[in-house]
Amino acid sequence: MYDTDKRKLLSALCHGAIFFSTTLVSIGLPIFIIFLTEDPIVRENAKEAINFHFNVWFYGAIIGVLIWLSFGLLIPLAGIWFLIHWGLTIWALYHVLSDTEKPFRYPFIFRLI
């Protein structure tokens, strides 16, 4: 049996790391947690958080190119993407803090890990 408080904390840190920054620093926390814990739920949450980071960067790059190609006309698209990725992260945090028995799965993302 795994400690549910520790599971909540580590899972929330994995998903919440994206709030720290959108650089490589924020992806380091879930990677570190994968090696730190043996809890299968926390490890799955860490993998999902890493995949979400890759998606945020990938779609952010696409939106950045579209904004550049449109001479800035699509800047509202960046705001929408910002709200979507923060909203999904808040949803993930709510899920891992309320249901510790299964890992959170982000909808509509590609998974590399």
Total discrete domains: 1
* Average pLDDT for all residues: 94
Strand segment count: 0
Radius of gyration: 15 Å
Distance between the termini: 26 Å
Instruction: Write the H/E string, N to C.
Output: HHHH
What does the overall shape look like? elongated
Determine the strand fraction and express it as a percent band.
under 5%
* DSSP helix fraction: over 70%
Query: How many H/I helical runs?
Result: 4
Provide an overview of this structure:
With 113 residues, the chain is mainly α. The chain has one domain (4-98). 71% of the residues lie in helices and 0% in strands. It is built from 4 helices and no strands. Helix 2 (24-36) runs antiparallel to helix 3. The chain is elongated. The mean pLDDT is 94.
Features:
71% helix; mainly alpha; single chain; 113 residues
Summarize the structure.
The protein is mainly alpha-helical and 113 residues long.
